[in-house]
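hey so i finaly got around to running the thing on DDE-1 domain-containing protein from Photinus pyralis. pasting the sequence first so u can double check i didnt mess up the copy paste, my clipboard has been acting weird all day
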Amino acid sequence: MTGPDWFSYYLKRNSRLSIRCPEATSIAWCVNLNKNTVSSFFEKLKEVLDRLGIGPEDVWNMDETGVPTTQKPDKVVARKGYKQIGRMTSQGRGTLVAAAVSAHGNSIPAFFIFPRINYRNQFLNNPLPGSAGACNPSGWLKEPNVSQFIKHFIKFTKCSRDKPVL
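ok and heres what it spat out for the 3d tokens, dont ask me to read them lol
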């Protein structure tokens, strides 16, 4: 019979193993993700890319990420028994940054979303050339900010009806 430390020692002996939390995967995703579905998708994708003459420089991926704008307080030494040790910090909610990168390795300047009602130019203090910003009370990329980002994207990728991108 194994003791309470057996699993702990087992993990130490097998350092390539770790305890992980699995990501939730929907049943529909699992059922539809099979060789036929994936093959069909890539065949159709190839047809579209060939028909439109789209190469790696025209295949773009856009993503957004939150950037904290407040400092995380350092640890401090305090007397035992005291639970609330305060340190002053601003109440910033962070900034959302939207970026796009092509399969060829090109990128467009960042697009910032600030959690405010009105945008001011000083929000972008000494930005990288071409960077742009907008505001949304929630701080998320929502309409009309999506339209603003698409205009920003078009400006730097120079895509059009005659030169489409994916």
